[in-house]
Amino acid sequence: MSRRPLITVLLLLAGPPLLGGGARAGDAPESETKEEPTASLVAEPPVSPAPPEPPPSPTSIAFVIDASGTMNRQLGRNEHTRIASVRISVREAIQALASHPTFEVWGRVYGPEGCHATRALPPASRGRTGPMLRALAAVGAHGPAPLVAAIAEAEQALLRRSGRRVLIVITDGRDSCGGDPADLAPQPGIERHVLGLSVRPSTAGELLAIGEYTEIRSPADLTVALGRIAGDLLSAPPVTADSAHSTSR
Q: Residue 169 is part of which domain span?
């Protein structure tokens, strides 16, 4: 056998010759390597923090206390005079209200200074009640009753304050200095509470025109009424500047 046919047979058995790079003829061309697409890094907009809650506005509570001569009478069948009962009950209310961190309590007393002046009680707040309580303990009852002027003066001071504003009037009768409760127009944003101590029915009608009226016939009635007002104020949700503004409109 000649060498040529043997070589031919070997070539046929080996298959078609490899092309450059090791690929055989007729093989499909190797696919190009494709890189996985990478996600584009898009900067997310910064998340704005929630705006802080507005701080609670202060609550101003003004007492207007009748210390005219008729307050030396008894309150009901109790041995205490009306002014003594007021000192005891208002003292407890001041201590409770002034314990609140945003409450300010102050007041005015009318009677001893005559028809044309009232006496200020120092403010109490953040648990500091000493000066106001000492001034309250020194209040004696004598003189006329400029009720309307005392209320108007207290409300002018309240209107210069922001936040919730509350007026608490404690009296045993009508104005004796020529004032007319009908002249006390409602002041926007001021809550009025009137506690009438053993007043006559005709006088009660005049006091009812001033604000929310509660009839007081005994020292216990006075303590309960002041406790209710203080409890409502202390349990109320905090007042912010926005809510106080909307309430006063």
A: 59-235
Provide the sign of the torsion angle of the four alpha carbons 145, 146, 150, 151, taken in this order. positive
d(CA 60, CA 123): 10
Q: What is the pTM of this model?
A: 0.76
Q: Is 133 part of a structural domain of the chain?
A: yes
171 neighbors 194 (Cβ within 8 angstroms): yes
CB hemisphere CA count around 193 (13 angstroms): 21
Cα 163 to Cα 11, 129, 192, 236, 247, distances in angstroms: 105, 21, 15, 13, 10
What amino acid is encoded at 161 in this protein?
Answer: R
Query: Tell me, what CATH number does 201's domain have?
Result: 3.40.50.410
Dump pLDDT digits (tens) for 169-211. Answer: 999 999 999 999 989 988 889 999 999 999 999 899 999 999 9
